[in-house]
Design goal:
Elements (H helix, E strand, L loop, with lengths): L17 H14 L2 H4 L5 H5 L11 H24 L12 H12 L15 H4 L7 H16 L1 H34 L8 H21 L12 H23 L10 H10 L1 H10 L7 H5 L6 H27 L22 H32 L9 E2 L9 E2 L1 H18 L2 H29 L5 H23 L7 H30 L4 H7 L6 E10 L8 H9 L2 E14 L10 E5 L7 E9 L7 H21 L14 E4 L4 E6 L24 E7 L6 E7 L8 H16 L1 E11 L6 H16 L5 H4 L6 E9 L1
Parallel strand pairs: 3-4, 3-11, 4-6, 11-12
Antiparallel strand pairs: 1-2, 5-6, 5-8, 7-8, 9-10
Length: about 800
């Protein structure tokens, strides 16, 4: 493919003002740091759950505090704030963002229908970084190795999916441990024999209410999240300062790393196992990176460095100061957070803690919805129903019913099944540290491949942070039989689902490519295609980006008539977060002009929102009309029109040109600029709104009127007139309802995966997103059997 000229870059983005940054930092406290802020509720209780004796020397409590301090300093502060947050994918963060960033630089992808034209997208080229020649050669060698060996590509995909599955598992475990730990304050007002019969039902009721309210979204109550978290941070830091000065001001000595050595030397295996509970002090740290798309880097860094980090340190030091003077407690279970809270304010603190736990749980649930949407867009998860709960912020406020109820059932099962924080914390710890290990591995590749830095810097990053995380990982994995099996089991289930769906999707696309119809067959039919052409537009959905799908020959040979205008529509995702509206469509022609066959490829990023049916139809027709005009006039090769025409490219399969067009929203005031002007030679398809009465809701229909102009070519005018008449006659959406079966001679494993696994997922998943937006009366499905 040959692309010329390049897409003009937009003007540089203005830096955010300090006022905007401060507002974003304030908002991030409620969205990003709810989970991390509630960790003091259960860290000490989980750390001392390994039969560690709380002696008079305070070596144990000071050792735990030292581990907490340095873990918070090294992982969230040093690793995430100073390094990982810089590796954004055009402003987006998270495990899959790192993976897509690597895929673009290494020219590998999970999507089978990628095109060279996709590499000309602005966000695709925006993150190109030129480094020193020697370091660049190292990155190029690594790139060539990844391109050459497909097994390494699969390992990279597997690594990203493991991290993703652990995030989903965290979406089950974090609400359980946060809410359960918050309501554990009830244990101080009753005996141990009675409180366990109260805590579990109360926690379950709160969890059910939390998940039932998800479909309303957070945009209505989101403004309360930041004040709740701020109140909670102010509360725990104030209590921490009080406990430090009231009980033991010498607790500052525990910040020395020497106490970590003394702790491990004295406690030995029990102390090493307790690291699985200590690592919970950084649960929620990954949210700083995962929620990067909603805020700026600077706002997230400021909120953590100046508010969250010092508040957490003071809270942990205050708990340690109290416990250092209370070595003999009435019962072992009272070593939790609430025992260090003064009795006169214990109930108000309990109420704030429950609200903060709900806010923290809300953040991880929303994050789970977001990452599943990304996986689905990139072909690694079955299609699910995505509901946008906010009319303004459509990218972040989403709700997935199937996932929501699945998370709720799993969360209740974990809470009722374990009934204590020890086992839940063991499970949550393994999920948290696994995600961080995956991030460290992917980040090391980003340093070499994307940033073009020294390989020694990447190895140093992996060795330094990887050593710390492997230590915690081993301490969590040894508790496999004591609860840590839960995230492993959940991850295996979701990993099997993802791989089966991805494998079936790839095989289905390969079948489409191998069985597509040749252009010679089409030319042999003639302009009428051997059947009667009736008025209207036939919109044939296909996954192919080139060639004629087999479903079309199936229609032509079995139907006596077909539409006057046929558009082969491919709605595909590209490995970038967002596609600019002016780069949305690729439009081309199939066969001679008198055939009236067009190809349209609509491109969306993995965080983009698909357009509604009315807006999509209007943009589609206008892009085809503009293509007809520019193709004849030859202006698309050297101009950038108001409708977003940027460049043309050669479709090697059909030897036809395809042009890039934007949506109507990309133009000034959202109108369609195609107006006939004596000086410019362009024209306008006037929009005439017609209101159609409906017993339910009034619908708006748009008519296009082709203006009279002596300057327009006769052939162009005739083709545009037919397009407008076909649009007025109506539009039908046609797609194949495929039945995928393993072909004869396939292995037993392949037959099981395709005939049972993929078939089950396909039958229980949603249809294509664009198919759901078209009226059922205008949709035609034809069954086809795919022998893959």
């Amino acid at each position: 493919m040959e692309i010329q000229p390049p897409i003009p870059n937009p003007p540089p983005i203005k830096k955010e003002s300090w006022k905007t940054t401060m507002i974003l930092a304030y908002q991030s406290l409620g969205i990003v740091y709810g989970d991390l802020s509630t960790s003091p509720l259960y860290v000490y209780k989980s750390a001392f759950a390994e039969d560690i004796q709380h002696s008079e020397s305070n070596e144990e409590i000071f050792g735990v505090l030292s581990f907490v301090f340095w873990t918070l300093t090294l992982i969230p502060l040093l690793k995430y704030v100073f390094v990982v947050l810089r590796a954004d994918d055009n402003g987006e963060g998270g495990t899959f963002a790192l993976y897509t960033l690597l895929c673009r630089h290494a020219r590998i992808s999970t999507l089978p229908n990628g095109q060279v034209a996709d590499e000309e997208l602005f966000e695709y080229r925006r993150d190109e970084i030129k480094g020193v020649s020697g370091r660049r050669n190292v990155g190029l060698r690594l790139k060539s190795i990844l391109e050459k060996y497909r097994v390494l590509q699969k390992v990279l995909l597997c690594l990203a999916l493991i991290g993703t599955c652990m995030v989903i598992g965290d979406g089950v475990l974090t609400p359980a441990i946060s809410v359960f730990s918050a309501v554990s304050g009830l244990e101080l007002s009753m005996s141990k024999e009675h409180h366990q019969y109260v805590e579990v039902p109360v926690a379950c009721i709160i969890l059910v209410l939390l998940f039932c309210l998800q479909h309303y979204g957070t945009h209505r109550v989101g403004f309360l999240f930041a004040p709740i978290v701020i109140a909670w941070l102010l509360c725990i830091s104030t209590i921490g300062v009080y406990n430090i000065f009231h009980w033991n001001p010498q607790v500052f000595q525990a910040l020395s790393p020497y106490y970590m050595y003394k702790f491990l030397k004295k406690t030995q295996k029990s102390g090493w196992m307790s690291l699985g509970g200590i690592l919970l002090c950084i649960t929620g740290s990954e949210a700083m990176y995962a929620d990067l798309g909603h805020f700026s880097q600077l706002s997230i860094k400021m909120a953590f460095t100046f508010v969250v980090y010092p508040s957490l340190i003071l809270a942990y030091m205050g708990q340690a100061a109290y416990l250092s003077k209370h070595h003999i407690l009435e019962t072992d279970y009272r070593i939790g957070f609430y025992v260090s809270v003064p009795e006169r304010i214990r109930w108000p603190v309990l109420g704030i803690a429950i609200l903060a736990a709900v806010v923290g749980s809300q953040a991880i649930i929303t994050g789970t919805f977001s990452i599943i949407k990304q996986c689905s867009a990139l072909g690694c998860f079955p299609r699910v129903k995505i509901i946008h709960t906010s009319p303004t912020n459509k990218h972040g406020q989403i709700y997935i019913p199937e996932i929501n109820w699945t998370l709720m059932l799993l969360c209740l099962a974990v809470t009722i099944g374990f009934r204590d924080t020890k086992h839940i914390s063991n499970a949550a710890g393994l999920a948290v540290i696994t995600v961080m290990l995956v991030t460290t591995c992917l980040m090391s590749l980003v340093i070499i491949l994307c940033w073009r830095k020294s390989v020694f810097l990447a190895l140093g990053f992996m060795f330094f942070f990887g050593t710390v995380e492997v230590l915690y990982f081993s301490a969590s994995l040894i508790k496999f039989r004591e609860g840590a099996w839960v995230p492993v089991a959940l991850s295996c289930i979701f990993l099997v689902i993802m791989f089966v769906w991805h494998y079936g999707t790839i095989k289905k696309y390969e079948f489409d490519v191998q069985n597509k119809v040749s252009i010679n067959w089409l030319l042999g039919l003639g302009p009428t295609l051997g059947i009667m052409r009736v008025r209207g537009i036939g919109l044939i959905h296909t996954e192919l980006v080139s060639g004629i799908p087999a479903i079309f020959s199936h229609f032509v040979t079995n139907l006596p008539a077909f539409h006057q205008v046929v558009v082969f529509l491919c709605v595909k995702s590209v490995p970038v977060p967002h596609v600019r509206p002016e780069e949305r469509f690729l439009v081309g022609r199939i066969g001679p002009k008198e055939y009236r066959l067009y190809r349209c490829i609509a491109r969306y990023g993995y965080r983009d929102v698909n357009m509604d049916d009315v807006g999509f139809e209007n943009d589609l027709i206008c892009c085809i009309a503009e293509f007809i005009r520019t193709e004849r006039a030859g202006t698309s090769t050297n101009t950038d029109t108001g409708n977003g025409v940027s460049h043309v490219l050669e479709d090697s399969d059909n030897d036809r040109k395809m042009a890039v067009f934007g949506t109507a929203s990309a133009n000034a005031e959202g109108s369609i600029r195609m107006c006939e002007d004596e000086s410019s030679g362009s024209f306008e398809l006037k929009e005439v709104a017609v209101t159609v009465a409906s017993p339910q809701l009034p619908k708006k229909r748009v008519r296009f009127v082709l203006p009279e102009s002596p300057q327009m070519d006769t052939g162009v005018r005739e083709e545009l007139r037919e397009l407008m008449e076909a649009r007025e006659a109506g539009l039908a959406f046609i797609r194949g309802h495929c039945y995928v079966k393993a072909k004869r001679g396939s292995s037993l494993m392949k037959r099981f995966v395709i005939n049972f696994g993929y078939d089950f997922l396909r039958r229980n998943s949603r249809g294509p997103a664009n198919a759901l937006s078209f009226p059922q009366a205008s949709t035609l499905e034809v069954g086809m059997v795919y022998q893959v």
